[in-house]
Design brief:
The chain is α+β, with helices and mostly antiparallel strands. It has a single domain (4-221), classed as endopeptidase fold (from Nostoc punctiforme) (Alpha-Beta Complex), CATH 3.90.1720. It has helices spanning 4-8, 12-22, 44-57, 77-87, 97-107, 218-221; strands at 62-63, 74-75, 111-112, 132-136, 148-157, 164-175, 178-187, 198-203. The strands form 2 sheets. The chain has a 6-stranded antiparallel sheet with strand order 3-8-4-5-6-7. Strands 1-2 form a two-stranded parallel ribbon. A hairpin with a 6-residue loop joins β5 (148-157) and β6 (164-175).
Length: 227
């Protein structure tokens, strides 16, 4: 979860104490790029982004509030994406998950998924490896222009299981049934019906230069930006 805004509002001494209390040992999973079904078909810019993400999963980083620096031993969800994209050469990425979502909306294409009840829903038809995926309602956040509280990177499908996987940081999401803590890969699953959390949408990274052909209907999806 991304608790950056609320956490930063606490006194420095309290933040430091809470960090020590909340920080758990890393329990992460990784995968080889060859195990991703669509990897070789992606543009080189996307392959480079995914390789960099997988390198981070091998560093055994835990989940650390308000961190975007591996040197601190861990990062939070938006800090992980912020660090990854800046490392890839995209310098204008914002720091917070809702700000990253607005950046995608304003500079790329944001595909909304609020009506999707499965990953087979038409709303996910344009999801591609290298896209950012956004969640809302993963925790109670301060008032935001967009209700986004969590962000991860879609990697594609595991060749062996056929299941879609994402990269990012979490303290509790799962991969193949195991709870993970830290910078890891995770299963991409929709929250259960009635849950407070929901997948808000997804979209390509602005400034990531790819020459992949557009899928059918992608022009129509351009109109489905969040208000």
């Amino acid at each position: 979860m991304c608790l950056l805004t609320a956490w930063l509002q606490r006194p420095v001494q309290m933040r430091a104490a809470e960090q020590e209390e909340i920080r758990r040992p890393a329990a992460v999973s990784t995968i080889a790029e060859e195990e991703l079904a669509e990897f070789e078909q992606q543009p080189e810019a996307v392959r480079k982004l995914i390789r960099s993400a997988l390198e981070l999963t091998r560093m055994k980083l835990t989940y650390v509030f308000a961190s975007h620096e591996p040197e601190r031993g861990g990062m939070d969800c938006s800090g992980t994406i912020y660090h990854l994209l800046r490392k890839t050469g995209i310098s204008d990425v914002p720091r917070q998950s809702d700000q990253i979502c607005r950046w995608v909306r304003d500079n790329s294409t944001l595909h909304r998924t609020d009506k999707a009840d499965t990953l087979d829903h038409a709303a996910f038809a344009d999801l591609r490896p290298g896209h950012l995926v956004f969640w809302s309602g993963t925790y109670t956040a301060t008032k935001r222009e967009m209700p986004v509280t969590h962000v991860m990177l879609y990697l594609g499908k595991n060749k062996t299981t056929g299941r879609p996987v994402v990269f990012g940081a979490s303290d509790g999401r799962r991969y193949e049934g195991q709870r993970r803590t830290g910078v890891s890969i995770f299963d991409l699953v929709l929250p259960k019906p009635g849950a407070a959390a929901a997948v808000y949408g997804y979209g390509p990274v602005p400034g990531l230069h790819v020459n992949a052909p557009k899928s059918k209907g992608s022009g129509k999806q351009k109109l489905n930006r969040a208000p």
